[in-house]
């Protein structure tokens, strides 16, 4: 699984948040299923070249949001969906993959997170047939 997760140390987004976001997206898109085990903190930290505390914080945040469950002696696993959560099919896997590819491409070209959000907001507002979404605080 660590092959699907990457950390961009040049990004303004903290590494723990990059890990949390990617694991969350993989779980939401169905790439990771309930019961799937995540790598140990030390293993993922070594694979990504970050401190174990960084991965531990990401796992703790994932557990707080209900994406994973930490089980003694069995490791950290993807949690079953909560009854109040949106259906898994709400975000198509191809959309998640397209967004991940867009972020990777933007980073490769040196586009900052706020600049990418601004571009996305502009694209959303100019999309025919949609109501104009309100600007986020990051776009203002």
UniProtKB/TrEMBL annotation:
CDD domains from the UniProt entry: WHTH_GntR
* Domain HTH gntR-type, residue spans: 13-81
Question: Which terms are listed as keywords in the entry?
Answer: DNA-binding, Transcription, Transcription regulation
Known InterPro entries for this protein? Answer: Tscrpt_reg_HTH_GntR, WH-like_DNA-bd_sf, WH_DNA-bd_sf
Is Transcription among the key words of this record? Answer: yes
**What SMART domains does the annotation carry?**
HTH_GNTR
The protein depicted here goes by the name GntR family transcriptional regulator
